[in-house]
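Worked example 4.2. Below are the chains of a multi-component assembly; read each line carefully before continuing.
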Amino acid sequence: MKKLNTLAALTALSLLAGCGSAASEPVTPDTPDVSEPATETTTETVVYRTLDEIKDSGTIRIGVFSDKAPFGYVNENGEYDGYDVYFAERIGQDLGVDIEYVSLDPANRVEFAETGKVDIVLANFTVTAERAEKVDFALPYMKVQLGIVSSEADPINDVSDLEGTGKELIIAKGTTAETYFENNHPDVVLQKYDAYADAYNALLDGRGAGLSTDNTEVLAWAAVNPGFVVNVAALGDVDTIAPAVSKGNTTLLEWINDEIVSLADEEFFLNDYEATLREVYGEESNAYDLIVEGGVID
Amino acid sequence: MPDSGISILFTGSNFWRLLQGLWVTIQISLISVGLSFVFGTLFGLLMTVKNRVVKAFCWLYLNFIRIMPQLVLLFLVYFGVTRQWRINLSAWTSAILVFTLWGTAEMGDLVRGALTSIPVHQYESAAALGMDRKQTFRYVILPQTIRRLIAPSINLITRMIKTTSLVEIIGMVEVLKTGQQIIDANRMKFPTGALWVYGAVFLLYFLVCWPISSLARKLEEKRR
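Applying the procedure described above to all two chains together yields the following structure tokens:
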């Protein structure tokens, strides 16, 4: 009887879900049935849609952040916007399809790509070996390194400015910056804080000579805090940021790679930077600290 | 720039977007609550059955749903089902399925509790008055059960409404997520905007939940 109950629930639900999705706004990921290749009931059923399937359907589903300005956010007119979205728009245009944006969180990006709930994840997705086991990454279009922000009056122009000079460097616990300095520059005296907010306050109070974390963070912070500069903007290992697709979706992956390579001719990502990141990072920021053109890391 | 944080709510289409987000919240809640009440009542009746196998089933279902955080259930249904069986449920279907499964379990337990809390002498008195089983249930047990159910089930409804904010994890944009989007997009322009946006979200939740609570209070008074 309980089984019947659940069965009835399921049928009722699928009916209702039909109504619900019809009324839903484009903000919801109303995924068309991937189960539609019912003809293909072999063991080889895949969760993703190939390039042709996407083109035929006329809509591509792209997962982006919706609350991580300036990379992916929703502007005051309710439209998706940002560095990642600028690229997504171009993908839609060149594929000749409409875009359905799906709002992602840092914690569910892998799942969305893995299960084909979105065709492409374009949500500031840092390439790691662990993630690459579950999704396929295309060529990078951005990179992240460490940066050091310091006061204009007494700037840190090089890591050596911190070694044996009595100057202390502020970092937030558990960040890549902490690991990097402990492993590579053990002579640098670190001041550790639990929260980013505390770390930035410490810098404002002059408790340390500089603060180090991801360059995207320090650049944005320096841009809105007069009197502070980022003179070390690309330090340590280069983490790349790339689009991701479902594991094995080679047709789509190859198309994205070709797209990224060919976009280099028009300096697409530089334009993207000018359109979306420049106002955040300031006039003096160097686009090439962050962007990757043509998928090539120098 | 002398920015009063409240203007964040009226910049562009921000307020309209919050209302749209609220509509998503209300839709998921309404459908799930409706289904939960139907299936929950049936499940509650089932729980009072004295068959061992049925009891074990009910116990297992109730505890499974209770122990699992709703967040995990959402993940399991939305991503897990696709991964396991290649069945692609939409976010809407997954959300309503999860909240109905949860609501059914909770509502069922409430119905069971209300039914079994009716003292035996009520049954005996009804029998003494010459009522048959149907009449006893219709005129003696049911009214008392419903009265006992009003407060806890209203509590369940408001709990379900508030918990729908979790659907953000499967990519749905409801009222709270919309609020977070607005806060983030205006971080630089309205540094104090967060307070206003969260305040507005609080007010919207209140406007939805308060009428339900006051309706329950009225119903309870009427029943007395």
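Take a moment to check your reading of the output against the notes. Residues 1-43 of chain A have pLDDT under 50 and may be disordered. Chain A has ten helices and 13 strands.
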